[in-house]
Specification:
Number of strands: 18
Strand content: 35-45%
Number of helices: 2
Bound molecules: calcium ion
Keywords: Signal
CATH class of the largest domain: Mainly Beta
Organism: Lentzea albidocapillata subsp. violacea
Strand order of the largest sheet: 9-12-17-14-15
Structural class: mainly beta
Helix content: under 10%
Distance between the termini: 53 Å
Protein name: Carbohydrate binding domain-containing protein
Radius of gyration: 26 Å
Order of helices and strands: HHEEEEEEEEEEEEEEEEEE
CATH architecture of the largest domain: Sandwich
CATH topology of the largest domain: Jelly Rolls
Length: 310
């Protein structure tokens, strides 16, 4: 009787298993999600901006894919009858005259993308995607005070700039120009590997990388990633494999010794792998994902590599 009950329960369990949808893989972590969720920025720096500043470079430069957050504290006195102001300036929107930021708030701290000259209020931007301002690739923000007469100003603002950046470049393979593996990505091993360009195999976006072979060789996709020594990071990647597969390994290697690697096997549908590591004396690591092939046709697809401060 007891065995029968177990059998019935097992059958119910199997039935439930058949009916339930496969668990969706978690969304890849992005600079935007890191900022929105209040997680540590990849880089943080502050700069004192004097009240008489026309334009001065923000403390951190921009790369493609960055999300940024600018905020400021402090007070400036802008001379004459114009009074004292915080970073948001006054409620007056400037028009005409010699205001540096036409259409901005008078006496405010503003930012300006060096690449296209687009200006914005920099008092407290919240999470901000430079791509929304048509700023792409390597760029710089300059900071200034929106005042027609800067020469009589005193005081200044302390500006804090946060940059949320995936330390793996082109971690989603969206900027790969062709089917081969191109910089900043590299390959190990003699067999077929490359990038699927808009073939519907990606975990996110349009592209992913793959290795496919019937050999018994080691093949891997790698990237050299400069990091800070003696710091803690988290690596993430999504992967899936053929039903017949070999011995997979992913992780990060230091300059001389292996830091962390993890085995993986058959994965049906994209699955996220996370590895926490510390760099020790290494000022850079090589991120890798590969496998020893089983001697029959097999493949692995990979997407959304990321390294962020832990
Ligand atoms: Ca003034
Ligand atoms: Ca992708």
């Amino acid at each position: 009787m007891r065995n029968l009950l177990l059998l019935v329960l097992t059958m119910i369990g199997l039935a439930a298993g058949v009916q339930s949808a496969p668990a969706a893989a978690p969304a890849p972590m992005t600079p935007w999600s890191r900022c929105q969720n209040g997680q540590p920025a990849t880089y943080t720096a502050t700069k004192w901006v004097h009240g008489s500043t026309y334009l001065t470079a923000a403390p951190l430069a921009l790369q493609a894919g960055d999300v940024i957050h600018l905020s400021a504290t402090g007070t400036i006195n802008t001379g004459g009858w114009s009074g004292s102001h915080g970073p948001a300036g006054s409620n007056t929107i400037t028009w005409g005259g010699n205001w540096p930021h036409q259409g901005g708030r008078a006496y405010s701290l503003y930012g300006r993308f060096a690449g296209n000259g687009v200006k914005f209020l920099a008092a407290n931007t919240g999470c901000m995607d430079p791509a929304g301002y048509h700023s792409g690739g390597n760029d710089r923000i300059d900071l200034g005070i929106n005042d027609e007469n800067l020469s009589d100003n005193t005081g200044g603002f302390t500006v804090t700039m946060r940059v949320y950046r995936n330390l793996v470049q082109d971690g989603g393979f969206e900027r790969q120009p062709n089917r081969g593996v191109s910089a900043p990505w590299h390959a190990e091993g003699p067999d077929h590997k490359g990038v699927d360009i808009r073939l519907g195999y990606a975990n996110s976006g349009g592209n992913n990388a793959f290795i496919r072979t019937g050999s018994r060789n080691w093949n891997a996709v790698t990237q050299y990633v400069p990091l800070r020594p003696h710091a803690s990071y988290r690596m993430r990647v999504f992967l899936r494999t053929s039903p017949v597969f070999g011995a997979g390994y992913l992780g990060v290697r230091g300059a001389s010794t292996g830091l962390v690697e993890r085995p993986y096997g058959v994965v049906n549908g994209y699955q996220e792998h996370t590895i926490d590591f510390t760099t020790g004396a290494n000022g850079a690591v090589t991120v890798f994902l590969g496998y020893w092939a089983p001697g029959s046709d097999s493949w692995v697809q990979m997407d959304d590599f990321a390294i962020y401060p832990a």
